[in-house]
Structures are given as structure tokens and as C-alpha cells.
Amino acid sequence: MSMDTEELQNLIASRRTCYLFNPKETMPLLDDAVYRCLNAAIWAPNHKLTQPWRFWVLGAQSQSELAEVYAQLRADKRAQPQSEAHQSIYQAAIEKFHKFPRIVLVGQVLDEDEVRRKEDYAACACAIQNLQLIAWQQGIGVQWSTGPILQSDVTYRMLGESRDNVELIGALYMGYLKGDCNTQNAKRKPVEEVSRWLP
Ligand SMILES: Cc1cc2nc3c(=O)[nH]c(=O)nc-3n(C[C@H](O)[C@H](O)[C@H](O)COP(=O)(O)O)c2cc1C
């Protein structure tokens, strides 16, 4: 497929963070589609070719395990332990998490050097944006979340990773788009407001 400049601009500007997906039972996001997204992610620019990104594509079992982490953190934050409210928040959160058609966790390999770490984070962000754009072009929505599951020791243990080596920087909730994504976010300050053109 070839794309002209205007189409590319439209793709970039029309992409939105998505919160509503078609049900995975009827419109599953298959491995091939996820692979294609990752195969765009890895072409992100990265200084010294450090290729600092790592991806964990969750399957049914790992999604269930992570659902428990998600639900526990959510319920603990919002209600007293052992309370009825805790139980119902926990249960609702489990269901919400199971509904995400696919989840990809993204981590950054941590370099010892502080400057390199900053560059590597930037590179990982570029990789995520590559993924989001190629996804969007195929009608696949993504929500890049930096929610509390990324900070949990349980998540690191589940992945068999040490915080000394890797930092989790994104949970990508993905699926085929349902309706309009959050159109409130379809706005940006104009270029004139955020740029100065020097002589
Ligand atoms: C580093 C980063 C972290 C983000 N974390 C979250 C998050 O935790 N939850 C969420 O709903 N959206 C998150 N987002 C998505 C932003 O909220 C979203 O990009 C912003 O509202 C603009 O909307 P748009 O992506 O539709 O243009 C994150 C985006 C970035 C770049």
C-alpha cells in the first residue's frame, strides 16, 4: 500500500487513544496482527542502536494472572480490605481486564548511564507510537496505559524480570475499534502556538 503525504498526516492526526473495543469473542486480535504491530515498533529510531524495547504479548493465562494484580490494586485503592465494596470493585475490575482483547506490556532495558536511559526511553516511546499508528491504520485501537500494574512487584515476578534490568513503561490495551474513540482528545494547540521560527 502506498500512502501520500496527506494520507500520512491524516493517519497521524486521526489516531486516538481507545477505550472501547469490539468483543474479543467476535473480533479477536490474532497473533499475526499483533506481530505486525511489533514489527513496526522495532523500526523506531534509537541512539547507538540499543534497541531498548522489550515486549510481552499476553495470552489467556497471563492475562488472567495480571487481571488479579489489576483488580487487587484497584480495589485496595478504592475500598477497605474485606469490605463488600472491595469485593465488588475487585470483581468488576477482573471483568474489565478480561474484556481487553489483547494486552502487550512494554519494557525498557535499563542502561547504567543516565543519559542513555533517557534516550532509550525516548526510543521506546517512538516504538510505541509506531505500533499505535500501524494499528490505527488497520482499525486496531490502542490505549497506552502507565497504570499501577506496571509498578507492582507481582507483575515483575510474573514476567520473571528484575527491576534492575528492565522498567515497565506501558501496558498496551489493544483491540478492534468500537465506535469513535475519545474525541475530546482530538485537539492540539496549533503549530504557531508551540513553535518559534528563528531567523
Ligand atoms: C507516556 C504516556 C502515558 C500514558 N498513560 C495513560 C494512562 O495511564 N491511561 C490512559 O488512559 N491514557 C494514557 N495515555 C494516553 C494519553 O492520555 C493520550 O495520549 C492523551 O489523552 C491524548 O489523546 P490521544 O492519544 O487520543 O491523542 C498515556 C500516553 C503517554 C504518551
UniProtKB/TrEMBL annotation:
Residues 12-176 form the Nitroreductase domain. The keyword NADP applies. CDD domains: YdjA-like. GO terms for molecular function: oxidoreductase activity. Its cofactor is FMN. The keyword NADP applies. It holds the Pfam family Nitroreductase. Keywords: Flavoprotein, FMN, NAD, NADP, Oxidoreductase. PANTHER family: NAD(P)H NITROREDUCTASE YDJA-RELATED. Belongs to the nitroreductase family. This is Nitroreductase. It comes from Thiomicrorhabdus xiamenensis.
